[in-house]
Amino acid sequence: MSISKKTLLIILAFFAIYVIWGSTYLLNKVAVTELPPFFLASIRFFIASILIFIIAKILKIDLSITSKQLKNTVIAGFLFLTFGNGVVVWALKYVDSGFAALEISAQPLVVLILMRILHGKKISLMSYIGVVLGFVGIFLLTSQKEIISQEGQVVGMVTIFACMISWAYASIFVGKADLPSNHFVNTGYQMFTGSIMLGIISLVLNEPWSLPSQWSDPVQWSMLGLILFGSIIAFTAFNYLLKTVSPEQVATSTYVNPIIALILGWWVLNEYISLQSIVAAIILLTGVYFINSKRKFRPRAQGR
Q1: Domain locations along the chain
Q2: Contact predicate 129/290, CB 8 Å
Q3: From the CB of residue 268, how many other CB atoms can be counted at a distance below 10 Å?
Q4: Of 7, 37, 130, 135, which one's alpha carbon is 20 to 30 angstroms from that of 224?
């Protein structure tokens, strides 16, 4: 039984958003052991944005942008990439990659709460259950003695949570903002503006800059993976899936990424996974599932 071209593309696209996005935590963790975090993130997104613009030009995609759209891409670039990603990379100096991925998997919970606060959006019973499970999972994850006792872990956890709020607000902002209609081009401008701001922060903090030739082989390969796979291929796959399958199916990456990150962190970096972390992961991801679920509770008919 032969597989159609469309089916094969869908399978490859899901592999990209599952495995590649899940592996970016490991890649960032490897790179940040040698490179300053804001310099790392700046170079990654700058090169990725230039490659996106080159690809768009080759494909004859319109790169024009209005002043309002440029302003909005700057805001989105800051919230998503400068703060939302750059600071997470900094936190990876103190937090295991798998742990960071698990904490960030609570993102839908933060979005839901912000939507309630900012727009008064009603929360369904399923979502309420998800929020409760999410908080229980986060508490179990972050209250482990062996984690809290490590230097810098608490700061790293709080920082990642602040980044989650930034990502959540950015997600709401982008939903209504005037941005370039082409998602590929929109991403390019966000990455470009975000990388400039990351570079400025790096210079202000007096981070040491270096050429790729000065990096070790593991860092060179990690950066290449972050640029080509994490920043370009996975995002393109994400947009392809949004136009091809249902959003609920695409959202399953929320459940898979932390598992991939945990496995890779344990396998490659020998990161410790405690039983409490596993239990917390199950509860937290179940909560995320309930938040994303469209199902509603209905009373069963009497006599059945």
Answers
A1: 10-292
A2: yes
A3: 14
A4: 7
Contacts with 138 (C-beta within 8 Å, 6 or more apart), sequence order: 103, 106, 280, 284
Q: How many CB atoms lie within 10 A of CB 253?
A: 21
Asked if residue 7 lies in contact with residue 242, where contact means CB atoms within 8 angstroms, the answer is no
What's the angle, vertex CA 94, arms to CA 114 and CA 149, rounded to 5? 95
C-alpha 299/C-alpha 108 separation (Å) is 27
End-to-end CA distance of the chain: 43
Residue 276 and residue 141: Cα distance in Å, rounded? 7
- Residue 69 makes CB contacts below 8 A (sequence gap 6+) with 178, 179, 180, 189
Residue 102 CA to residue 3 CA, distance in Å, equals 34
In whole angstroms, give the CA distance from residue 53 to residue 61. Answer: 9
Length of the chain, please?
Answer: 304
* Rounded-to-5 percentages of helix, strand, coil across the chain: 75, 0, 25
Amino acid letter at 303? G
